[in-house]
Amino acid sequence: MRGYVDYLSSLAKGNLLDYGLGDWATINATTPAGVTASYGYFKCADTLSRIAAVLDNDTDATRYGQLAQTIGEAFHAKYFDAANHTYATGSQASDALALDMGVVPAAEHDAVLGHLVANLQGNGYHLNIGEIGLPALFDVLTAAGRHDVIYQIATQTTAPSYGAMLDRGATSLTEFWDGTGSQNHFMLGAIDKWFTSALTGIGQADDDAGFAELVIAPAIVGDLTFVRGRYETPRGPVTTEWRRIGDDVVLDVGLPVGATALIRLAGQPDQRAGSGTHRFRATLR
Question: What domains appear along the chain, each with residue ranges and CATH number?
Fold first, then answer.
């Protein structure tokens, strides 16, 4: 891993990369290739730093953490458009990647997120983003609690959308939003993460490993009335099931031996639960 990141560093100019296929499969082709390439460079350095920290390799954790910070600072300096509260060309991908990197200053975060959401709303909640920016878009909207926006994206049926793929007769994900290319291409399926974590609410605490400490925080969104999920952890299965009953939501949680969870439900105070099965109820507001 060190060898690969060091190789990327040997290609960088001004701590940024500027080559590659760009935001592959995008409809909006304005996103510079340097945005996606530098994002990839940043993610490699940041991930390597985190892995080194888990392995108690403090030297590499510090070295590559500093590298990631340097890349992020260079990215912000080159691509931030302060007048319009956006990055690079203002595309969905440019904003999503910058937000996902964490390079947006705190004072600008809400404005840049607002620019991204306005872009999506202005496009009738249709995506014009490609395969590189797509996972970041869902991640930043999830982190911001904008499940309402993702739900609107997920339920569109006119092109470009997942629903339009189904209407064309697709039985697996296509490579491009218009249904062409490979007919069994997983990369546009980044929304699966939202289904299996946000809707079911099954997640792992940020500083945890091996799913000993979970966070159960289902997104109660749109006109959904029922969701059931199951995830196999090293300690055994974690299950969630929630349903709307009038103005209330009822959540059933199953936790394996050796696991504990923080339960966050519909604006109620956080609760803690240990192994076993538990039921929680909250009134929706």
Answer: 2-194 (1.50.10.10), 203-283 (2.60.420.10)
